[in-house]
Amino acid sequence: MGPVASRTLRSGTLTRGAVFPLLAATAGYLVMPLLIVFRTSLGATPAGFERGPASLIGLAAYSVGLALVSSLLAVAVSLTASLLTTLDPRFSFCYRIWLLVLLFTNPIFLVFGFSVLFARIPPLMAVIAATSYILLPLSGLIIQSGVDEFDPAQARAANSLGASPLYVAVNHVIPSIRRVLLAAVCLSTVYALGFFLVPAYVGLGRIVTLGTVINSLANSVGDWTAASQMCIVTLVAQLVLVLAWLVGARLGTRRETA
Amino acid sequence: MKVIIRSISLLMMATLVAPLVCIAILSLSPNEGMDIFTTYHGSMHWWRDLFHDHSWLAALLNSAWIGLLSALMALCITLPVALLWRLEKSKAARNALLLAIISLTIPPIVLAVGLYRTMAAIGMFDTAAGLALSHLAFTVPVASLVLSSRFIATPIDLYLAAKTLGAGRFHSSFRWLMATQRITLFGCVGLCMLTSISEVIVAIYVTDTRVPNIARRALTGITQDISPAGFAAMTAWLLVLTVCLLPLALKMTNKRRIYE
Which of A19, A94, A187 sits opposite B81 (nearest CB)? Predict the structure, then answer.
């Protein structure tokens, strides 16, 4: 065996040796659980769980709608805050600390707090407000990274030609981070789709979403087949969202190229 | 113009912080009545309860150990792949990293149901090792994102120079890592650990009573022993996090003004 062939063989072994643990871990925490959920969902549904397709589609649409409204609200607030960070360095520092702290704050504590603070407002509004607040760090970090990538020289040039900061924000910064905004909306919506603590405690159990149904089927009823079937519905809803995101990003790219 | 921008900034910051401030005020409530509008006289009663109640501290310490274990596992699994991707430009390593972060796009409740069934099947339900392994679903993607974003921002001239001078791959990689990425490695472990500690849904599903953790303790705080001590715990956690994350926020802050 020549030196080149030997080196190629060593390189292939090195790649396999380095990549295998990560692939094994990914199979363990992602592929196997999803396969188990899929296999369990194929079992016979015990009595007491008879949801028609129309009811399932309605529940999925309601959950996605609720998650989408909350994530749009979170993205709107995050975008405003991120634009303010370009104008005010002190705000930028405080906002970044707030983002990081909230990102690593246990959501149960926030749910606990909101269930007391929002006790006097209607459950649906309370759930939307609490979900948006919990989504803020996720959407905030994604949008902030997009705004940080924006070239300040472009804004200064526009400013020196007489454009106001508001004009620059609307006509320069926002168009340059369109794809980041789309990603923030999509990821936040997918994340919110799995929430069950907020509707259960802040919504006082009156708001029924895919998350609350899965949780009650798994923990209260103990019907894992039905819970797995609802998980599959959630995954389908998530796939539709991700596909919409990819199509939106592709359309944006095509329009920019044209 | 400056005054207007400063006023809007202040208003925005006040809006963002207001719920946390209200929760901190509730932790000073003199009695068990948890209504922000009736809290007039401050009391440190619930803070004393928090520090005398060992279940909170035990849960936090256990969560920290589990988080550290999960973070170290995630780093050991992800680091070689990230190095291979950055230093050797391996496509297989890039694809493996992309695959690892897919779990961030799966709703956590779906992962929780699947992981519960998996852990029950292999006899690791309600064990600390089972929780640490389950948290790899969150710590591996975080480690992949942190390492890949930091590695791509760092030049690899030192690695190439070491290789040109005859050093082996492992030696050159180790030298490059130690010379340029020490803080990144510590930061990565810290962020993965915090991710594990603050994760709730999977922790509730894959543990019961044998493994105390902060997610379960907080859930008990909501559902059973409802008292403002939970708010004191949250306020304490926020203060600790603020102190810990201050250097990172300082580093991240872009002090340049767009408009001079």
Answer: A19
Which residues in chain B have their CB less than 8 angstroms from residue A93's CB? 249-250, 253
Q: Which two tokens stand for residue A34?
A: 């999803």
Domain map of chain B by residue range? 1-43+228-260, 54-226
* Contact criterion met (CB < 8 Å) for A89 and B253: yes
How far apart CA A101 and CA A120 sit, in angstroms, is 27
Task: Give residue B126's region: left, alpha or beta (phi > 0; psi -120 to 50).
Answer: left
What residues 62-121 of chain B have any CB closer than 8 A to a CB of chain A?
73, 76-78, 80-81, 83-84, 88, 90, 92-93, 96-97, 99-100, 102-111, 113-118, 121
Q: What's the pLDDT score for residue B77?
A: 93
Place of tokens 């990603």: A183
Q: How far apart are the first and last CA of chain B?
A: 12
List the CATH number of the domain containing A120.
Answer: 1.10.3720.10
The verdict on residue A130 lying in a domain is yes
| pLDDT score, position B168 | 83
Residue B85 burial (CB count, 10 A): 25
Domain containing A189 equals 59-257
CA-nearest residue to A14 within chain B is B84
**Is A30 touching B (CB cutoff 8 A)?**
yes
Q: List pLDDT tens digits, range A241-253.
A: 888 888 887 887 7
pLDDT in tens, B169-219: 888 888 888 888 888 899 899 989 989 998 888 998 998 888 888 888 888
Residue A11: inside a domain: no
* Predicted confidence band of residue A130 (pLDDT cuts 50, 70, 90): very high
Q: Between chains, do A37 and B113 touch, taking CB under 8 Å as contact? A: yes
CA B191 to each of CA A84, B61, B194: distance values in angstroms, whole numbers, following the listed order: 26, 16, 5
Cβ neighbours of A112 in B, within 8 Å = 218, 221-222, 230-231, 234
Query: Which residues make Cβ contacts (< 8 Å) with residue A133, sequence separation at least 6?
Result: A74, A110, A114, B19
Q: Which two tokens stand for residue B1?
A: 């113009």
Specify if A43 maps to a domain.
Answer: no
**CA-CA distance, B78 to B187, in Å (whole number)?**
14
Q: Which of A66, A198, A13 is nearest to B222 (CA)?
A: A198
The reported pTM is 0.85
Q: Is residue A5 part of a domain?
A: no
Summarised one tens digit per residue, pLDDT across range B129-154 is: 999 999 999 999 999 999 998 888 88
CB atoms within 10 A of CB B202: 26
Q: What's the number of domains chain A is made of?
A: 1
Please tell me the predicted confidence (pLDDT) of residue A81.
Answer: 93
CATH superfamily ID and name for B54-226: MetI-like (1.10.3720.10)
